[in-house]
Every structure is written in structure tokens, then in C-alpha cells.
């Protein structure tokens, strides 16, 4: 079954998002379905992260409704919501010493009873998540000794260990070298395609959006937005206005790219 034929996992209707009286997104109608990767794009400060946090249920929208699997997002108990929706934050603060493995095992907490310890199965899931981000062998490293890129990959591993069908990613390739950027986006595109996850990612590199995303939600300012298939939304004229700089489209072997004009 194609993504378009599947019932949506996450839906927004007439959603308004604002900060201090400034409209970031107005009247958003959005369905995120299993098997697709949706990219949120726009200029710095336009409201991408705020919108993502609202979709995750961390902020109350100014108006409109949000549903997860047909149930109002606000009606989900916290533990059950954490089993169904995972969020990768933009930054990660480690106030206390912890090993990499223990940090990744945090992703298993929604699946573990209140008074229970992690099982062997939970540890196996965490180790598999570390392998997926090329960090096997780092289990006993103290997380505060890691580089920025390594710490980002640990955060991604923790999200993978959560095993939620909806993955909301705020700048997932921040701090990563180019090879890990591509591997990370390939990983989430594969999770969507092969496992039916619904992935929403805030991304800055338009060429990565062209390469990996199925649809794009472009925030253009003043609460305005454009959403649709990537090839329809990412057009040079539209992007030039949205990013306040002329962009030129190039083509190479059938693939589209954008460069500053």
C-alpha cells in the first residue's frame, strides 16, 4: 500500500502556531502518513522548531486540532504517547555523568514498568540502535567526553531505541560530517520506506530535502506556508522569495539541485 493510501498517523487541522503574538503558521492542514518523510524548511527564526514542538505535543497551538492515530494528541497518556511519538531535540544537555549505553537506554523507558529494570531485550535494542549509527564499541564511554557529532548520533540512537512509529526530528544532521549526514538521512528514509514509520524532519540543506524527502512543508513568513510533493514545493522562484536570495536550479543526470544565483 502506498503512503497516500494509508490512514495518517499524525494530523493537523486548521492549526495556528504563534509566539508572543507573532503568527508562525496559520490554518495548517497536514496529514503525515506511514512510509513518508516530510521535511520542514524555511529561514532561521521562521518557526520550524516551534511548529515541530507543537506537532509533538510539547506546545499548545493557538488554534486548531492535532490527532495521533485519530485520537486527540492531548488525550494520550504521557507513557503511551512516548511509545507512539519520538522527538529528537535540537540540543542535548548532559548535566550528570552517564555512559553512552545508559543514555541510549533512556529511549526504552516508555516500554519499561515503573519499578522495573531494563531487560536483556532492551539492552539488545539499544545496542542495535548504536550499531545503526556506527557507535558500537562506545557503550562504556562517558557521554560528556564525546564530540558534538558523536553526541548527536547517541541522541539519534536513543530515538531509534524508542521504536516509535512517528519520528519528529529537529535538525537531525546538526554537527555531523557529510558522510554521517547522508547515512542518517538514508537511515530515516529507509525506516519510513521499509518499516512504515512517519518521519518529519526540520532540514536546512535544500539539496538533501530534494534527495531524501517525499514532501516538503515550506514556512514563508507571516504564518504562510506551502506544503506538497518536494518537486512541486521546491521551485527556484518560490525558494528565492522564501529565503530572500535568488536561487538557481541545476540538473545533473536527472537530479535537481539548487545553488545561490
Automatic annotation (TrEMBL):
Classification via SMART domains: AAA
Entries under Pfam families matching the protein: ABC_tran (PF00005)
The protein's role, per its UniProt record: Part of the ABC transporter complex HmuTUV involved in hemin import. Responsible for energy coupling to the transport system.
Entry-linked InterPro entries: AAA+_ATPase, ABC_transporter-like_ATP-bd, ABC_transporter-like_CS, P-loop_NTPase
Single Gene Ontology MF annotation: ATP hydrolysis activity
Start and end residues of each ABC transporter domain: 10-246
Keyword field: ATP-binding, Cell membrane, Membrane, Nucleotide-binding, Translocase, Transport
This protein's name: Hemin import ATP-binding protein hmuV
Amino acid at each position: 500500500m502506498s503512503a497516500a493510501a494509508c490512514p495518517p498517523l499524525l494530523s493537523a487541522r486548521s492549526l495556528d502556531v504563534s509566539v508572543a503574538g507573532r503568527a508562525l503558521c496559520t490554518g495548517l492542514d497536514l496529514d503525515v502518513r506511514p512510509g513518508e518523510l516530510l521535511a520542514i524548511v524555511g529561514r532561521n527564526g521562521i518557526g520550524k522548531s516551534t511548529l515541530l514542538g507543537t506537532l509533538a505535543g510539547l506546545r499548545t497551538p493557538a488554534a486548531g486540532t492535532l490527532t495521533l492515530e485519530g485520537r486527540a494528541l492531548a488525550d494520550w497518556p504521557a507513557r503511551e504517547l512516548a511509545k507512539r511519538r519520538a522527538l529528537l531535540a535540537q540540543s542535548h544537555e548532559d548535566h550528570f555523568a552517564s555512559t553512552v549505553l545508559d543514555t541510549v537506554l533512556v529511549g526504552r523507558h516508555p516500554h519499561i514498568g515503573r519499578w522495573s529494570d531494563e531487560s536483556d531485550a532492551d539492552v539488545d535494542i539499544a545496542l542495535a540502535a548504536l550499531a545503526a549509527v556506527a557507535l558500537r564499541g562506545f557503550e562504556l564511554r562517558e557521554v560528556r567526553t564525546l564530540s558534538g557529532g558523536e553526541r548527536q548520533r547517541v541522541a539519534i540512537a536513543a530515538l531509534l531505541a524508542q521504536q516509535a512509529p512517528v519520528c519528529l526530528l529537529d535538525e537531525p544532521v546538526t554537527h555531523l560530517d557529510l558522510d554521517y549526514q547522508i547515512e542518517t538521512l538514508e537511515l530515516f528514509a529507509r525506516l519510513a520506506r521499509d518499516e512504515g514509520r512517519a518521519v518529519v524532519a526540520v532540514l536546512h540543506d535544500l539539496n538533501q530535502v530534494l534527495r531524501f524527502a517525499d514532501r516538503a512543508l515550506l514556512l514563508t513568513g507571516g504564518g504562510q506556508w506551502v506544503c506538497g510533493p518536494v518537486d512541486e514545493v521546491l521551485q527556484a522562484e518560490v525558494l528565492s522569495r522564501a529565503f530572500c536570495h535568488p536561487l538557481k536550479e541545476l540538473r545533473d543526470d536527472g537530479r535537481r539541485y539548487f545553488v545561490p544565483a
